[in-house]
């Protein structure tokens, strides 16, 4: 991967990694490549995990329950002080998009490797984010940029003005939670009441908003890199439409069938939005794409699980770029320098039953990964590793890169066939079958495709 030659200024030299699993390993490697020391925290359930077995050491910060360990801001800050860390990388999930945590890290005299609290708060509130995107000229899903009123008649009028079907969403939501599709007026009142209560309980924010529900969209993302001096670039686009229960299973870059002429104005609008809100670090703009048009849905103010496919096509180490931004370095790249080549796929390998998606805990008894040019595995597991029942089921990411989409698909088929993972259930069989599917091979599948495909596959 392309790396700039500038040496980071010593704003910090020790990074505490406030996460677990494959992303903790990924961040540690990026830090070491930049000459930085790392400290890894872990819960009691992860004490013997490979992410804790590092030359830099680790610190157990609490019990298996994430709220008492990986989500415990005070425990993480104390661990940083005890170990002499002067920066904290949150990875993804957990506290990565928590504005209060970002503020607490900075108030403690440490560097939060991510955007500042204002950017996190703005983009974390979907209504505020939509307003910011409209101001920057980023295309948005039809619907008002304001919270829904309490008055049922006014809500009904808003839905009628948008046109059914509509989707009601939590302003502070994410991860596929806090949303209901409404196909007609008779469903509206119940959907509004149930979603508002779910939003209040799950996110501590009962505000809802409403948008047009697109029937057959694709999920397209645009990755951005920014520094604190107003420099920003976008790194092409990726397709994340292969989803199960709103969770991504396979990602690819670039998104097939979308021309540069269509996506370039959107990418430039994303860059403009970053400059307007003073965004720093890495981020991802998520869109629905239907009938040749992009519709903004949200921005993730953090590193994403699927960043490797963009790394493979752009040749840029996104994690290192994120760390360099936190070191107050100027972005060494201009948009003209960004050249994305070839095609990349990422398969999320999960410890779960391939047909029911129920998590599978236990000990991995035998493990073998594929190797070769253009094949990459991001993981923390090893033979003898005990998969915990307490956390997300993601245990590895298998990534391939080749000159064309067809060649990348063939390479992924071989890579999946060469993968051996025994002792627990995994979704390997699902992935192997999906990469043999003619519809997926043709590309341009929408966000509902995998769910429909799974119904037939699970019954076989």
Structure description:
Strand 4, helix 3 and strand 5 form a beta-alpha-beta unit. With 460 residues, the protein is of the alpha+beta class. An eight-stranded antiparallel β-sheet has the order 13-12-9-10-11-14-19-17, sandwiched between helices. It has a five-stranded parallel β-sheet with strand order 3-2-1-4-5. 33% of the residues lie in helices and 26% in strands. The two termini are 42 Å apart. It is built from 14 helices and 20 strands.
Keywords:
460 residues, alpha+beta, eight-stranded antiparallel β-sheet, five-stranded parallel β-sheet, 14 helices, 20 strands, 26% strand, globular, disordered N terminus
Which whole number gives the mean pLDDT? 94
The residue ranges in which pLDDT falls below 50 over 5 or more consecutive positions are 2-9
Quaternary state of the chains: single chain
Described by strand count, sense and barrel closure, the largest sheet is: 8 strands, antiparallel
Class from helix and strand fractions: alpha+beta
**Number of DSSP helices?**
14
Taking all Cα atoms into account, the compactness measure Rg is 22 Å
**Range of helix content:** 25-40%
